[in-house]
Structures are given as structure tokens and as C-alpha cells.
Write a structure and sequence with these properties.
20% strand, alpha/beta, globular, two-stranded antiparallel ribbon, seven-stranded mixed β-sheet, 198 residues
Length: 198
């Protein structure tokens, strides 16, 4: 059992918190209540960033002391939304939210994952007609192994998890968010994930 704080209790955070609790972890889901994020991060071994990506950097940088030595799992994408509310552009072109977080939080082990799919797939990967991929980006091998173990608890088979390398590789997976609005407009809001077929 791992003590986990999920920052953000919307569709993404709520879904992850419920699934991880069902898997036997001690989970705290945090809303915007003042002081709640700091308290939860201080007590957790792993912190999951499921806050809206546009404000994630500022929110998490304020938790530098609480996040020191922790694993920060970043599942958010930092985007500028279009008139329809769907992602239209990246906030950090030539970089990524994960890289910005790692730079702002040098004593925290940031791992990027689960950001190349619609949120229902995060906790039900086997529900798709074809095997999806979950990608890992991060500098710390032990942190990535811990996150890999969490993904397995969420129903991801080990062969569906691909370690892309260092945190810089997150800019590739974050850019995949630009597929999302076009896929939704083309086929409707049905769960899907970016997959690499070999």
C-alpha cells in the first residue's frame, strides 16, 4: 500500500483517486481548500498532479517544501483552449509542463504519464478494442518503477507501458494533446488513447 495524494478532484483526479483506493492504496483527493494540498502532499509518498495544466506550475511550485523528496506524477497537459473549450495550442511550445515542473522542483522526482488518452482510459485500459500505450518520462529510474507499479494496479499490462527516457521526452507526449480536439470532432467523445503499433 502506498500513501498517495491526488491534487485535483475533477473528472481526472476523481477517477484516479477512486481507482487507486480500490487497488488498496491510501488515497487523499484534494480540492482547492486553502492548505489542503500542502497537508496532503506533506503526508504522501506519491503526489499526482491532476490539476488543470494551465495553472499547475504556479500551484505546485508553491508546494516546493512539501514535495521535496517525493514522486510527482504529472498527468496534466498545459494548453490554451479554443472557443469550444478543447485544446487549441500548447502553453510551453518547445518544452513541456513536466519539464517546467522538474525545473521548478529540483528536489522532486517528476514522472510524466497517462497524458495521451481520454481520462476514462487511465483506469480502464482494457476497455479499448486495441491495446493502448502508457508512456513514462522522467529522470529517476526508481521513481519510474514506482509509477509503473501504480499503472499495473490501474489495469495496465507491463507490455503496454513504454519508458521513453528522460523528462525532456514529455514534450512529445504532451504535444499529442493536439490530436484530441480533432479526434473528438471527428468521432465524438468516445474513450481513446494514442498507441504505437509494431
Amino acid at each position: 500500500m502506498t500513501t498517495i495524494a491526488v491534487l485535483g478532484n475533477g473528472r481526472v483526479g476523481g477517477n484516479l483517486a477512486a481507482a487507486l483506493a480500490r487497488a488498496g492504496h491510501e488515497v487523499t483527493a484534494v480540492d482547492r481548500t486553502p492548505g489542503a494540498a500542502a497537508a496532503a502532499a506533506r503526508d504522501a509518498r506519491i503526489v499526482i498532479n491532476a490539476t488543470p495544466g494551465a495553472g499547475s506550475l504556479e500551484r505546485l511550485a508553491a508546494l516546493r517544501d512539501e514535495l521535496r523528496g517525493k514522486i510527482l506524477v504529472d498527468v496534466s497537459n498545459a494548453t490554451v483552449d479554443g472557443p469550444d473549450g478543447l485544446p487549441a495550442d500548447l502553453i510551453y511550445p518547445g518544452s513541456s509542463l513536466a519539464e517546467q515542473l522538474q525545473e521548478a522542483l529540483p528536489q522532486t522526482r517528476v514522472v510524466k504519464t497517462l497524458n495521451t488518452m481520454l481520462f476514462p482510459v487511465m483506469t480502464a485500459p482494457a476497455s479499448l478494442t486495441r491495446a493502448p500505450d502508457a508512456f513514462l518520462s522522467g529522470e529517476d529510474p526508481q521513481a519510474k518503477q514506482s509509477v509503473r507499479d501504480l499503472l499495473v494496479d490501474l489495469g495496465w499490462r507491463t507490455e503496454w507501458i513504454t519508458d521513453l527516457g528522460g523528462i525532456r521526452t514529455a514534450r512529445a507526449t504532451e504535444a499529442a494533446i493536439l490530436f484530441v480536439p480533432h479526434v473528438i470532432r471527428s468521432g465524438g467523445f468516445a474513450p481513446f488513447a494514442i498507441s504505437i503499433t509494431r
